[in-house]
Structures are given as structure tokens and as C-alpha cells.
Write a structure and sequence with these properties.
10 helices; binds S-adenosylmethionine
């Protein structure tokens, strides 16, 4: 049994590993390297920091399905962007979703997600900072993305690609850490997408619980009924 001193030290070490991941400047090689060393202890670390982002994102997906979509939850195709070890997938399955694909930059993280047995398929070495992704336009009913629009990871422009792969009338649900939202042009990207008509006016849950050290904003985007030319383009 850990003493409280040991527990404090473990929590601090976990927070330091989380913070260090924010210093990677969106550099794909550094990110992949960092996560390959972190994959084995990632779940334990974020659990120590009481990471609840995946629960919130999955619950929002379930709420949007219940409120606005006619399809049976179990038959809806969902893309988990930057799926990591599969924490969002676990929550989606708990809520009755079954057709879940994932992708991640890191092979080590993607392999952890595959090992959960939850995902239909998980692709690795997919870089959301280098669109287009190898997915056809409008191919998912919903796209979810948690913990990826974070400092040092994915630039705001990546949102556009998540919208492209989501079908008309589908939803994109994304978390942004507060520090990320403050330091980047994420809100400008949202405004551009709205002004172009690529997404309907977004809903945002501000300052939601995320992990101990920081809150996050949770964004809900709906893709309009009429597809934009960008969406009909095959990747
Ligand atoms: C903080 S983890 C979040 C993982 C998972 N979504 C979760 O909530 O636990 C961030 C993930 O984003 C992935 N990632 C970082 N940069 C990426 C990029 N440019 N394209 C795709 N995935 C990326 C990392 O490999 C890592 O698995």
C-alpha cells in the first residue's frame, strides 16, 4: 500500500509527464517518440490526475444522438481522432456505441487502443496536422476528439479535417484545454468554419471539468445538411 507521501510523489510525477507532453511544438517525430515512451503508463498517469475528458466527450456524443439523431446508437459509425490508448472508446462502448474507428499519430498508443478490442480498426501514424487524412469525406456519423487540441499537439486547423470526414447532419465533439484555447487561434478557426457555412453555429460548454490541473472547453459542432464541396472531395 502506498504511503500518502509516495502517492503525492506519483501524482506529481504524472503531472510532470503530462506537462512535458505540451512542450513538443506539434512536431510529429517528437510527439510520436514521446508517446511511444509514455504508452505503458499513460492510463495510470491520467487516472492519477483525475482525467475525466473522455467521460464528458462520450456523454456529449450520447446526448447529441439521443436529442437529434434517428439512427440506432449501435449502428452509428464514430471516428475517435487521436484515440490514444482508447479511453474515449471505452466510454463510448459503455454508452452503447459499437462501430468505433480510431486513429493516432503514435503506433504505441494505437496498439494499446487495439488491445482493448473495442475498436473496429485503429490506424497509426496518422497526423492530424498534415491533412488530408486517409478517410473519405462524410464517412462518419460522429467524430470525437479528446485531449488532442492541447498545447504542443494539434493546431486549430485540424478541426477542419474532422468536420470534412463527418457526414451532413452529423456531429463533431472536441475538447480544448483552457490554456490551448487561450494561446491559439482555435476560436478564429471556429468562426471561419461557421462563416463559411461548413459548420452550424457551435455550442460550447465552457470551463468543464477535465483533469485536476486544468479545465477544458467542450465544443459541439454540427455539419450542415447540405455538404460543402470540401466534404464531398475524397481524400
Ligand atoms: C493526451 S493524449 C489523448 C488520447 C485520448 N484521446 C484520451 O483522451 O486519452 C493525445 C493523443 O494525441 C495523439 N496525437 C498527438 N499529436 C497528434 C497528431 N498530430 N495527429 C494525430 N494524433 C496526435 C498522441 O499520440 C496521443 O495519443
Amino acid at each position: 500500500m502506498n504511503t500518502s507521501h509516495e502517492q503525492q510523489a506519483s501524482e506529481q510525477a504524472a503531472q510532470e509527464r503530462i506537462k512535458a507532453s505540451h512542450q513538443l511544438d506539434g512536431d510529429a517525430v517528437r510527439l510520436a517518440h514521446y508517446y511511444s515512451g509514455w504508452a505503458n503508463s499513460y492510463n495510470l498517469d491520467v487516472d492519477r490526475d483525475r482525467y475525466c475528458g473522455p467521460v464528458v466527450v462520450a456523454e456529449l456524443a450520447a446526448t447529441m444522438q439521443a436529442a437529434y439523431m434517428d439512427e440506432n446508437r449501435a449502428a452509428m459509425a464514430i471516428l475517435d481522432a487521436g484515440c490514444g490508448t482508447g479511453l474515449v472508446g471505452r466510454q463510448l462502448v459503455r454508452l452503447g456505441f459499437q462501430l468505433i474507428d480510431g486513429f493516432d499519430l503514435s503506433e504505441a498508443m494505437a496498439e494499446k487502443a487495439r488491445q482493448t478490442g473495442i475498436y473496429r480498426q485503429v490506424q497509426s501514424k496518422v497526423d492530424l496536422n498534415q491533412p488530408p487524412l486517409g478517410f473519405s469525406g462524410a464517412s462518419y456519423d460522429m467524430t470525437v476528439c479528446c485531449g488532442v487540441f492541447t498545447l504542443g499537439h494539434v493546431r486549430p486547423r485540424g478541426l477542419r479535417e474532422l468536420v470534412r470526414v463527418t457526414r451532413p447532419n452529423g456531429f463533431v465533439i472536441v475538447s480544448t484545454r483552457k490554456s490551448y484555447a487561450e494561446a491559439t487561434s482555435f476560436e478564429n478557426e471556429v468562426l471561419c468554419l461557421q462563416n463559411e457555412g461548413t459548420v452550424a453555429p457551435a455550442q460550447c460548454l465552457n470551463d468543464g471539468k477535465y483533469l485536476d490541473e486544468e479545465d477544458a472547453h467542450y465544443w459541439i459542432f454540427r455539419v450542415p445538411k447540405t455538404p460543402t464541396p470540401q466534404q464531398t472531395r475524397r481524400s
